[in-house]
Amino acid sequence: MAGEYTIAGGLADARRLARQAHVMEAATLAFLSSAGLRPGWLSLDVGCGDGQVSIAMARASVPRGRAVGVDADAESLLIAQRSATRAGVEAVFAQADAYRPIAVGVFDLAYARLVLSHLIEPAAALRAMVAAVRPGGTVAVEDLYLGTLRSEPPAQALNDLQDIYGATVRFHGGDPTIGPRLPALLSAAGLECVRERAVHNPMRTVADKLFLAELVRNMRGSVLAARAASADQLDDLCARVENAARDPRTVFYQARIHQVQGRRPVT
Ligand SMILES: C[S@@+](CC[C@H](N)C(=O)[O-])C[C@H]1O[C@@H](n2cnc3c(N)ncnc32)[C@H](O)[C@@H]1O
Questions:
Q1: Quick one: which of 101, 156, 187, 203 could link to 208 by a disulfide (CB 3.0–4.6 Å)?
Q2: CA separation (Å) from 162 to 150, 182, 223?
Q3: Which residue among 7, 45, 71, 93 has the greatest number of ligand 1 atoms within 8 angstroms of its CB, and so is best to mutate?
Q4: What is the C-alpha to C-alpha distance for residues 138 and 130, in angstroms, rounded to an integer?
Q5: Nearest C-alpha to atom 12 of ligand 1 is from which residue?
Q6: Coil, strand, or helix at residue 216?
Q7: Model confidence over 167-195: pLDDT tens digits?
Q8: Does 97 sit in the ligand 1 pocket, CB within 6 Å?
C-alpha cells in the first residue's frame, strides 16, 4: 500500500502538514463550499494525512453530517483521530488504500488533496472515489502543477527544490504536473458537469514558508532512493530554502493548485 508515496509520514510529517494546511486553508474551504458541502453531508477524505481537511469537512456538516478520513499511514490516522476528538467533531478515520472504495454509493462527497499526483494509477483511485459516492454525489480533487512554485523576489533554492521534487515524484511513479490533466481524468472516470479552478496560494509568514524546508527534510529517503540529489546537496538545499524562508522580504507561492470537481450521474 502506498509504495509510491515519497514523503515521510506520521509524526515526522505532522508539522509540515499543519503548515501546509494553513497555507491552503482558505482556498480549500472555498473549494469545498463550491462543491456543495453542507450540513447533513457524509464526506470522504481520501489520503487524509493528519486529517485537517476531514475535520473541516466534519465542522461544515453539522448537524447530522460527518466525515470519514482514510489513509495508508496508520500513524497519521492516530494523529487525525486525536485532533478530531480534541476539536469535538464527528470525524472518523480508517486505514484504507486509495485504490479501493471503503464503501460503495454512500458518500455525498469524496475528496482528495495532493494525493493523486503521488499515485502510479490516479485513474484507478478516481474510479474508487466515483464508486464511493451516491448517484448525484460529488467527487472533488485538488492537485498541483509543478513548475509554478516561485519566490518573489526570486530564490534559486526554490527552483532547485522543484527540480529535485519533480525528479523524485516521477521516479516513484507519480506525476507532479497532474493538475491540468485532472478535468480529463474526472470525465474519463464517468463524472459529468466537470468544473475547474486554479489557485496560487501565497506563503507570507516565516512559519508558512518553512513548510518548504520541512518538505525537503521529509523527502530525504525517497530523494536519495531516486538519486535526484546527494545527501550533501540535500543538506545544502535545506539550508538555502530555510534562509530564503527566514528572509522577511520573500513571499513564496505554492505551485499552482488545480481544483476540479464533477458529479456522478444519477442514472
Ligand atoms: C501530501 S499528503 C496529503 C495529505 C492530505 N490530503 C492533505 O492535503 O493535508 C498525501 C497523503 O496520501 C497518503 N497516501 C499516499 N498513497 C496512498 C494510498 N495508495 N492509499 C491511501 N493513502 C495514500 C499518504 O499517506 C499521505 O498521508
A1: 203
A2: 9, 20, 12
A3: 71
A4: 8
A5: 47
A6: helix
A7: 999 999 999 999 999 999 999 999 999 99
A8: yes
Contact status, residue 216 vs residue 237, Cβ threshold 8 Å: yes
Residue type, 1: M
139 contacts 264 by C-beta, under 8 angstroms: yes
Cβ(46)–Cβ(54) under 8 Å? no
| Residues 6+ positions from 67 with CB-CB distance below 8 Å | 42, 43, 44, 45, 54, 55, 57, 58, 61, 89, 90, 91, 92
- Specify the pLDDT at position 7: 62
Confidence of residue 8 (pLDDT cuts 50, 70, 90): low
Name residue 25's amino acid: E
Return the CATH number of the domain spanning residue range 10-263.
3.40.50.150
Distance CA 13, CA 52 (A): 13
pLDDT of residue 86: 92
Q: Edge-to-edge, what's the strand order for the sheet holding 150-152? A: 150-152, 251-253, 202-203
Query: For residue 175, how many C-alpha atoms fall within 13 Å in the half-sphere facing its CB?
Result: 13
According to DSSP, the residues that pair with 5 across neighbouring strands are none
Phi, psi (5° rounding) for residue 178? -70, -25
Q: Which residues contact 264 (CB under 8 A, 6 or more apart)?
A: 130, 133, 134, 135, 136, 137, 138, 139, 190, 191, 192
Beta strands of 165-210 (E only): which ranges? 192-199, 202-203
Q: For residue 108, give the C-alpha cell.
A: 455525498
C-beta 114 within 6 A of ligand 1: yes
Check pocket membership of 118 for ligand 1, CB cut-off 6 A. yes
